[in-house]
Design brief:
With 114 residues, the protein is mainly α. Helices cover 44% and strands 7% of the residues. It has a two-stranded antiparallel ribbon.
Length: 114
């Protein structure tokens, strides 16, 4: 029996590290690290092979560098927002509608109902 989290991880890696349709940032990072995540990372315990994420990169690069090329056509369906900068400089992020609702709208409505 496979772990659903590991199955989901492999699905995400397949998207972000696809040579033609993947994410510009992660494809560059794969080359620098000399790893092939789609074959070398099979479980969450393999994730350290990607190294630590430099959070400054999230502040300095365009948001589209972190979006799979295969999904850029759908970017008009995303909710783009800037973080509040609680831990430093604000950064841009994007949400699908259902993720935005689950993270922000539903908790706000629940709090307002109380």
């Amino acid at each position: 029996m496979t772990d659903p989290l590991d199955d989901f991880l492999r699905e995400i890696l397949a998207i972000h590290f696809d040579p033609k349709w993947g994410t510009p940032y992660w494809l560059e990072r794969m080359t620098r690290l000399g790893v092939e995540p789609r074959s070398e990372i099979q479980t969450t315990s393999d994730l350290p092979k990607l190294g630590r994420m430099d959070q400054e990169v999230l502040l300095d690069r365009p948001l589209t560098d972190f979006m799979p090329k295969a999904r850029l056509e759908e970017k008009h369906d995303l909710i783009v927002a800037q973080t509040g900068g609680t831990l430093g400089r604000p950064a841009w992020t994007a949400f699908q509608d259902e993720d935005f609702r689950a993270a922000f709208v539903e908790p706000f409505v629940a709090a307002a109902d109380h």
